[in-house]
Amino acid sequence: MTISIIYARSLNHCIGNEEGLPWDLPCEFAHFNRTTMGHSVIMGRRSYEDHRSELPGRLNIVVSKQQNYPLVPNVKLAHSVEGAIELGLKYNQEVFIIGGTELIVNALPMRETTTVYESIIDVNCEGDTFLPEFNFDSWQSTLISKHAVDQNHRFSFEVWRRTRLSQA
Ligand SMILES: NC(=O)c1ccc[n+]([C@@H]2O[C@H](COP(=O)([O-])OP(=O)(O)OC[C@H]3O[C@@H](n4cnc5c(N)ncnc54)[C@H](OP(=O)(O)O)[C@@H]3O)[C@@H](O)[C@H]2O)c1
């Protein structure tokens, strides 16, 4: 079993604002789709409310403490990160934590979390959702791709893969 985390953050560690994502970067979203396709994706209730739909081709699991939180068909409900991971692993041996902050912060120290896909968007932006500054010194970091500003991408970005080196 493998737990992976995937997110995109600005230079000042912002991941969200009241409209959802603070940017519209089609190639970054394509990377997210490619990487998570066929796996389980675990998201917090607020992140689900950005779209209130199923991300196709993946088992979608929403985490909420609310007992009967209503979801669109096919999307599953879990009441803890651990419960969501257990459910996700029944579907596929790699599950992706896709945000927001509490889920990522909870999952990062787990021994089973071996990979983090981090997109760094070259902007300092305002927002209402931030990640703490993670220290990836004891992880192996690989730059997977870089994307320049163009007519469809207002900001440039880099995609990094961080792989846990030690299981200590
Ligand atoms: N840039 C990115 O990569 C990225 C990724 C994901 C999301 N986002 C953005 O981030 C924002 C949402 O993130 P967020 O951190 O505010 O919220 P969130 O994590 O999406 O949702 C928070 C809610 O999830 C539930 N939850 C979280 N941890 C839980 C736990 N351990 N046990 C049970 N329930 C738990 C709770 O729901 P209840 O209150 O219902 O109990 C909590 O209120 C949006 O703006 C979204 O667009 C950005």
Q: Tell me the strand percentage band.
A: 25-35%
CATH class: Alpha Beta
What is the CA–CA distance across the termini? 18 Å
Task: Sketch the major β-sheet.
Answer: 8 strands, mixed
Q: Given the structure, what is the number of helices?
A: 4
List unreliable stretches of 5+ residues: none
Q: Please provide the count of β strands.
A: 10
Helix-and-strand structural type:
alpha/beta
- CATH-defined fold name: Dihydrofolate Reductase, subunit A
Overall mean pLDDT score? 96
Indicate how many domains the architecture comprises: 1
Q: Please name the fourth-level CATH homologous superfamily.
A: Dihydrofolate Reductase, subunit A
Q: Approximately how much helix is present in the residues?
A: 10-25%
Which molecules other than protein and nucleic acid are bound?
Answer: NADP nicotinamide-adenine-dinucleotide phosphate
Give a nutshell description of this structure:
This protein has 168 residues and is of the alpha/beta class. The protein has four helices and ten strands, in the order E-E-H-E-H-E-E-H-E-H-E-E-E-E. It is 20% helix and 34% strand.
Short descriptors:
Dihydrofolate Reductase, subunit A, alpha/beta, single chain, two-stranded antiparallel ribbon, about 170 residues, about 35% strand, about 20% helix
SSE topology sketch:
Blueprint: E1 2-10, E2 14-16, H1 26-36, E3 40-44, H2 45-49, E4 59-63, E5 76-78, H3 81-91, E6 94-97, H4 101-107, E7 113-121, E8 129-130, E9 139-147, E10 157-164
Parallel strand pairs: 1-6, 1-7, 3-4, 3-6, 4-5
Antiparallel strand pairs: 2-8, 7-10, 9-10
